[in-house]
Amino acid sequence: MASDGIAIGGFMGTGKSTVGRRLADWLQLPFVDTDAVLEERHGPIAAQIAAGEPAFRERERALVAELCDGEARVVATGGGMWADPGSRARLRAAYRTAVLTAPLEVLRARVGAGEGRPLWAQAGRLLADRAAAYADADAIVDASTAPELVAGEVLARLGFRRTVPVALGDRSYRVILDPGGLDGLGEAVAARRAIVVTDSTVAPLWADAAEASLRGAGAEVARIVFPAGEIHKDLATWQRVVDELLELRADRGTPVIALGGGVVGDLAGFAAATVMRGLPLVQVPTTLLAMVDSSVGGKTAVNHRRGKNLVGAFHQPSLVFAPMGTLSTLPDRERRSGLGEVVKTALLGDAELLDRLEADADRLRDGDPGALAPVVARCVAIKAGIVAQDERENGLRAVLNLGHTVGHGLEAALGYEGLLHGEAVALGLVAEARWAVRSGHCADPALPDRLLRLLARLGLPSAPPAFPAGAALEAMRLDKKAAGGNLSMPVPVRAGVAAVVRVQASALPELLAELG
Ligand SMILES: NC(=O)c1ccc[n+]([C@@H]2O[C@H](COP(=O)([O-])OP(=O)(O)OC[C@H]3O[C@@H](n4cnc5c(N)ncnc54)[C@H](O)[C@@H]3O)[C@@H](O)[C@H]2O)c1
User: Fold this and answer.
1) I want to staple 177 with a disulfide (CB 3.0 to 4.6 A). Which of 162, 203, 267, 423 is the partner?
2) What is the pLDDT of residue 305?
3) Whose C-alpha lies nearest to ligand 1, atom 3?
4) Torsion of CA 42, 47, 53, 57, to 10 degrees
5) Which residues of 85-102 are buried (b: 16+ CB within 10 A; e: fewer)?
């Protein structure tokens, strides 16, 4: 019976060790590189082969026997190990297996002159001789692309996706966190017709892959593209998308596939909510912010000149498919902005997650998929749990607006230009925590500085650019949470716990002053 580990085979230069390390990170399993073990025990591989290849292969076989002990781990095998029928059969019985492949010219560019690889001189012949062996695995994966995409593809092909349920009675759905790209989308959506709605930045990067997958699963597909950017999340763009949906004769059997960040999710979601009183919606988030927050929970909206998200509807998706491999093209600043919402989620819902963010801050800042994956899964589970208890924000769900009272004020005052959404939220978290300590709502006086340090390590700003305070206050007053001169605002009570409190509108200047 195969364990929950993975053994990777493939030729020299296919990236078995690099990909293997990423897989081990994602799965939180130990990593073993068989060549590294044999070098440690018996000296350089080149010297071992020079001294006699049969003896070296015998050592490889002995090591395989050691590694087939039922323990789960990720094993990157030496190039020739997979060609040995006995070793391969053992590994196939003990592990889920993947072989990485790439055209010889790609391998040549990676391996160069083949220093330290005595068999590289015969690469062409060896590849031909081993062709049958390299076709014998649970998954054969093209390794010509970036290691994180290759690792994602291996995980997806071997069935290592994570699924988080959102329990909402007859509106329940799944959030599928796919470590790869969009290959699995079509099968998950399983529709005969679908309309992909995306923006002008995401379209050239990922729309073809999404559509190929949908078509591969038998769907007829159309595409609607609108210009990227928060300033286009408005009624005029909504109108255009609605017109196109109607021209394409979308009906209740045609899911709208919202492919992109939070702007696409909110706008395409609102179009889906309103056309024909509700088309099915599939959220396919391609930013970190959209994966951890906006794609889950059914809030859809566009901005109005009077404020952000003022025109919208609750419209739950029938599926969220989060292709984590698409984060590979996301600009660094956008990814770090998403970490602002991650910190928010930890602060309001999980003290242990906050500890983990501190421990892994450097890897998260650098976008290491192995560090991101468990964090994204945890954030989705926290949000799903809150939404399941209070779908329409009659109470508890309002805690998800932590950091947003000040954050939205800042964004509006800056005309949605100087700061990204997650950056504004991050600044809002610190200001609101300081205010909560000062006003006696938060019992942990060290919390604001702790947040500030974490956000700085994650690459988020610690102070806003110059902004007109009057405009920020005006936007905060007009915030949809304002009721009868009072504001309902979530504040941190301690790490991992938030509560909604009533705030006098007259306290807003103090709150804003906490931005420092
Ligand atoms: N509905 C909710 O519950 C909810 C929650 C939080 C935020 N939001 C909304 O989400 C929006 C912010 O979302 P966002 O930060 O994802 O912004 P966004 O959608 O504008 O995406 C940021 C930028 O990255 C680009 N992009 C997206 N995916 C990419 C990829 N894989 N590679 C390269 N570029 C890519 C986009 O085209 C855009 O230019 C705001 O409008 C906010 O109000 C909604």
Assistant:
1) 162
2) 84
3) 294
4) 30
5) eebbebbbebbbbbbbbb
